[in-house]
């Protein structure tokens, strides 16, 4: 069955009885297998499986791709056949009837990594996620680990603001050659698409080197050099503590990267379990 498309918050709430397990997968549409894996997880958990499709203006900078971001609601609903019950697709007037003067303030981490080159991005994400959680009131909301920093900040917001929602974190889904699935991969030319795989390859090589004992900062520097040599414009390559996202802590590591290929910004990450994690210094 195709999901029911709902545009208004009132209509949505009327369809969600309180005694049912509701799952929400928030998306901006242009759904790919990565999104569908999140929605399938929701299907397993929930009585009512909701997917929101909304391109959130608050999280785009003035020179970013808000106006060109793919909007394909009908095709998205077809992709969700038999796995979602409801697609919540509000328009701007429904979600932001007034200028949004109340927003979520996040810790300084929101201005690091992706936040450094995308000021206000995570505040926009957190604010819309907060609104979506309040509209849908799900028991579970599902996010992918590809957006590792986003996931971390959403988890922090939900914990610190006492949302009753449980956040489910799902693994990155990759194309056959290893490129992390993303709606923005559609922007890559065929030549760029072939070269894009060098990014996950570099991450895997670095992870193996770190596991074998290389200093994480050295491995990160090598990834940066490799990507630059391969024609990427590197925004950041950083090793962080995988649990706290701090750079000075020790522990299990996540190696995070953002780099632009042509016009397309790609992000990816790899988690590295360190058996001697407690002793390892990242910086
Ligand atoms: O990850 C995304 O697609 C978006 O940032 C989200 C969580 C749907 C908020 O607009």
From TrEMBL:
GO molecular function: ligase activity
Positions annotated to bind ATP: 28-35, 144-147, 173, 181-184
Keyword rRNA-binding appears in the UniProt entry: no
Catalysed reactions listed for this entry: (R)-pantoate + beta-alanine + ATP = (R)-pantothenate + AMP + diphosphate + H(+)
Keyword Signal carried by entry: no
CDD domains, per the entry: PanC
Annotated TM spans: none
InterPro entries membership: Cyt_trans-like, Pantoate_ligase, Pantoate_ligase_C, Rossmann-like_a/b/a_fold
Origin superkingdom: Bacteria
Binding-site residues for beta-alanine, renumbered to this chain: 59
Active site positions, chain numbering: 35 (proton donor)
Main localization, broad class: cytoplasm
Residues reported in the UniProt entry to bind (R)-pantoate: 59, 150
Pathway the protein takes part in: Cofactor biosynthesis; (R)-pantothenate biosynthesis; (R)-pantothenate from (R)-pantoate and beta-alanine: step 1/1
Entry EC number(s): 6.3.2.1
Group of enzyme by EC: ligase
Localisation: Cytoplasm
Keywords carried by this UniProt record: ATP-binding, Cytoplasm, Ligase, Nucleotide-binding, Pantothenate biosynthesis
Function statement: Catalyzes the condensation of pantoate with beta-alanine in an ATP-dependent reaction via a pantoyl-adenylate intermediate.
Misc: The reaction proceeds by a bi uni uni bi ping pong mechanism.
Family under the similarity heading: Belongs to the pantothenate synthetase family.
Assembly: Homodimer.
Protein name, as recorded: Pantothenate synthetase
Gene: panC
């Amino acid at each position: 069955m195709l999901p029911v498309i709902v545009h208004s918050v009132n209509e949505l709430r009327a369809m969600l009885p309180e005694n049912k397990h509701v799952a929400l997968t928030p998306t901006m549409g242009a759904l790919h297998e990565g999104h569908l894996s999140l929605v399938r997880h929701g299907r397993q958990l929930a009585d009512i499986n909701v997917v929101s499709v909304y391109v959130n203006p608050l999280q785009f900078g003035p020179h970013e791709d808000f106006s060109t971001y793919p909007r394909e609601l009908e095709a998205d609903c077809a992709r969700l056949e038999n796995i979602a019950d409801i697609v919540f697709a509000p328009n701007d007037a429904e979600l932001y009837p007034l200028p949004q003067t109340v927003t979520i303030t996040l810790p300084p981490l929101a201005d690091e990594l992706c936040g450094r080159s995308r000021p206000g991005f995570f505040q926009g994400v957190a604010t819309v996620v907060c609104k979506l959680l309040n509209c849908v009131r799900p028991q579970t909301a599902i996010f992918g680990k590809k957006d590792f920093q986003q996931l971390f900040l959403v988890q922090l917001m939900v914990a610190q603001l006492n949302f009753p929602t449980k956040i489910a974190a799902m693994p990155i889904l990759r194309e056959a050659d290893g490129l992390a699935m993303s709606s923005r991969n559609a922007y890559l030319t065929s030549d760029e698409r072939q070269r894009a795989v060098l990014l996950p390859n570099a991450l895997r090589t670095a992870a193996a080197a770190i596991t074998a004992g290389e200093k994480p900062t050295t491995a990160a520097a090598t990834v940066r050099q490799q990507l630059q040599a391969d024609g990427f414009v590197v925004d950041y390559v950083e090793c962080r503590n995988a649990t706290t996202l701090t750079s000075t802590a020790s522990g299990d590591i996540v190696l995070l990267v953002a780099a632009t290929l042509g016009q397309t910004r790609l992000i990816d990450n790899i988690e590295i379990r360190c058996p001697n994690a407690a002793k390892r210094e990242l910086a």
